[in-house]
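Structure first, sequence second, as always.
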C-alpha cells in the first residue's frame, strides 16, 4: 500500500469513496451485485440501533492496475424460538473476502484488447505518483468464500514457499448465477501464482460461449501479501459469524456465573 500525501489525491479519493458508498448502499447494508448480491450487515446485538455504515479496504497500486481487498461480513436474519419466544440471529449467508481489480484509466497501459474490463497486466514496482484507475466501468470482482480464503492462506505460507523450487498456481472458478447457468451468464476465474518474493493475481471473465472477455493481472510484493494474509486470517472466523456466537455465549456464561439477571 502506498501513502498519498497530496491534498488533491486525498480529496479525489474521498469523493470516489463517497460516490461508491452512495451507489452501493442499501437499507440493510452494502450490496455487491457483481458478486452475487453479497451485502454486509452488522454483527451487533439483536434489536440494537444500527451503527453507522463503515467502509474499509486495503488497496494496492501498480502502473497498469490496482487491487483492493475488502472483508464482507455475513448476512444475518432474525429468528424467534417458537417455545420460549426468545429472539436470536442466524447466519443466512457467510461472509467473503472481496477482491476488486481495476485497470489504469490512462490509455497507454493496455496490454491487449477485448470486451469486459479489457486485458491489463501490471508487474512493475509500486506506483509512487498519483494515477487514476477505472473503478467505474472496468473493475472486476472476485469474492473468496470460506474454503477459498483458507486455501489462499494455507498455500501462501512463506515457510512453504521457501522450500518450493517453482511458482505454485492456485485456480479458483466461479460460475455467475450458480450451476446450470454456463450457457446463459459469464463466468469468472482467479489465478494466483505464488512465489518467494511476489504473488500474481490474474482475474479473467469468459462469455457464456467460452470465449475470453477480458482480464486484469497485478503483481503483489511480499510485504503486501503479508498484509493480505493477515486480513484473510482475521476474516475467516468472522465469515461464519463464529466469533459473534462465541462472544455471546461467553457473555451469557459470565452472567450465569455471577448470578446476573
Amino acid at each position: 500500500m502506498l501513502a498519498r500525501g497530496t491534498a488533491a489525491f486525498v480529496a479525489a479519493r474521498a469523493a470516489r469513496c463517497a460516490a461508491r458508498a452512495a451507489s452501493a448502499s442499501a437499507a440493510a447494508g452494502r450490496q455487491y451485485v457483481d458478486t452475487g448480491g453479497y451485502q454486509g450487515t452488522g454483527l451487533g446485538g439483536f434489536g440494537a440501533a444500527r451503527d453507522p455504515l463503515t467502509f474499509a479496504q486495503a488497496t494496492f497500486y501498480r502502473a497498469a492496475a490496482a487491487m483492493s481487498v475488502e472483508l464482507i461480513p455475513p448476512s444475518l436474519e432474525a429468528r424467534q424460538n417458537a417455545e420460549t419466544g426468545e429472539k436470536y440471529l442466524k447466519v443466512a449467508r457467510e461472509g467473503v473476502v472481496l477482491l476488486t481489480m481495476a485497470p489504469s484509466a490512462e490509455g497507454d497501459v493496455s496490454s491487449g484488447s477485448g470486451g469486459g474490463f479489457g486485458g491489463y497486466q501490471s508487474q512493475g514496482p509500486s506506483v509512487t505518483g498519483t494515477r487514476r484507475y477505472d473503478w467505474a466501468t472496468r473493475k472486476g470482482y472476485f469474492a473468496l468464500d470460506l474454503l477459498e480464503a483458507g486455501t489462499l492462506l494455507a498455500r501462501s505460507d512463506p515457510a512453504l514457499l521457501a522450500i518450493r523450487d517453482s511458482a505454485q498456481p492456485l485456480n479458483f472458478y466461479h460460475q455467475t448465477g450458480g450451476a446450470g447457468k454456463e450457457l446463459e451468464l459469464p463466468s469468472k476465474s482467479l489465478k494466483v501464482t505464488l512465489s518467494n518474493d511476489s504473488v500474481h493475481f490474474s482475474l479473467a471473465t469468459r462469455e457464456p460461449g467460452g470465449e475470453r472477455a477480458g482480464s486484469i493481472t497485478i503483481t503483489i510484493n511480499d510485504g503486501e501479501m503479508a498484509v493480505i494474509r493477515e486480513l484473510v486470517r482475521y476474516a475467516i472466523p468472522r465469515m461464519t459469524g463464529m466469533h459473534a456466537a462465541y462472544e455471546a455465549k461467553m457473555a451469557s456464561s459470565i452472567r450465569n456465573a455471577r448470578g446476573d439477571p
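Margin note: The chain is about 25% helix and 35% strand.
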